[in-house]
Design brief:
The chain has a five-stranded mixed beta barrel. The protein has a five-stranded mixed beta barrel with strand order 8-9-10-12-11. The radius of gyration is 29 Å and the shape is elongated. The chain has helices at about 1-10, 35-55, 95-100, 130-135, 215-220, 235-240, 250-270, 270-300; strands at about 20-25, 30-35, 60-70, 70-75, 80-85, 105-115, 120-125, 145-155, 155-160, 165-170, 190-200, 205-210, 225, 230. The longest helix has about 30 residues, at about 270-300. The chain is of the alpha+beta class. The chain starts with a helix and ends with a helix. About 35% of the residues lie in helices and about 30% in strands. GO terms for molecular function: mRNA binding; structural constituent of ribosome. It holds the Pfam family S1.
């Protein structure tokens, strides 16, 4: 009502305000101003400025400006970005209002910038250090670790390893062949083996590689298709990450296809010596089939 409106205006007495003139009545010597419109325009100008200097992968200081069921809006210096509920904490099933309140100071990781729509996607969980140092202290360069793909970006894939620790597989480290996007090989929620190739303690970042982990991973029981995508996991990894049961026939077919493709590519690169090896390999497989038929025939006669 009028009394409440007057009470709110009292708070502005003596303060400098940014306002926009929205109406002038010279006959009555009256001007109507809007602080809301002025602030809206100012914030848009600030957003345009900050979008020019923001880069994906940066960590920025910010303030929680509002909270919704689907996430948290953070002011990162004149521009609001959204941290989706899945990017707030490594703890599952936590609601935004249980984790933050308006006015909280936070660090925000710049996930994605859309210049055309001027949208900024943030992650608060990727910017928090937490027990990062304690977990990483147990890791060594060259170690093969098992993690889950949490986010695919054009420049690489984020892999969650343990607690607050996450690393980045650059697109060049996803597979041996050239790809346009990590999604050509990986999917979000995939469980993958990665080799630890870099530790940046100052910026709390890990560099990982699926490509360099492949040989060790195959020795551990992982299986890859011809494109480099995971198609088989060791039993202990299936149990730990609650993966579906093994479909042996499907996996064996895909592994055989991958082997044949590898041989064909090798022959194309160096036909003479490799073709001899390939022929010997094919002869061995054929002989194995003959031996199996002989065994089955003997069993039938008995």
């Amino acid at each position: 009502d009028a009394e409440d409106s007057a009470s709110q205006l009292v708070d502005f007495v003596g303060k400098e305000l940014r306002t926009k003139v929205i109406e002038i009545n010279r006959r009555k010597n009256r001007a109507i101003l809007s602080e809301r419109a002025a602030m809206s325009e100012w914030r848009q100008e600030q957003k345009d400025l900050i979008l020019k200097v923001l880069e994906e992968g940066q960590v920025r200081d910010g303030t929680v400006s509002s909270i919704a069921d689907f996430g948290v809006f953070v002011d990162i210096g004149g521009a609001d970005g959204l941290a989706h509920v899945t990017e707030l904490s490594w703890e599952r099933n936590k609601k935004p209002k249980e984790l933050f309140k308006v006015g909280d100071s936070v660090k925000a990781f710049i996930l994605k910038i859309e210049p055309e729509t001027k949208k900024i996607s943030l992650s608060l969980k990727r910017a928090s250090t937490g027990a990062w140092d304690e977990v990483v202290e147990r890791m060594v360069i060259g170690q093969v670790l098992i993690g889950r793909v949490t986010k695919l970006m054009k420049f690489g894939a984020f892999i969650h390893l343990e607690g607050p620790v996450e690393g980045l597989v650059h697109i060049s480290e996803v597979t041996n062949r050239r790809i346009q996007h990590p999604q050509d090989v990986l999917k979000e929620n995939d469980v993958v083996p990665v080799k630890l190739v870099r530790i940046d303690k100052e910026r709390h970042r890990l560099g990982l590689s699926v490509r360099q982990a492949r040989n060790d991973a195959e020795a551990m029981g992982f299986g890859f298709d011809r494109n480099g995508a995971l198609i088989d996991w060791p039993d202990d990894v299936r149990a730990e990450f609650d993966l579906p049961s093994r479909d042996a026939s499907k996996i064996n077919d895909e592994l055989q296809t991958a082997t044949e493709s590898a041989i064909q590519e090798a022959v194309a690169r160096d036909p003479e010596p490799v073709s001899a090896f390939a022929q010997a390999f094919a002869d061995a497989l054929e002989q194995a089939d003959v031996d199996d038929d002989d065994i089955e025939g003997s069993n039938d006669e008995s």
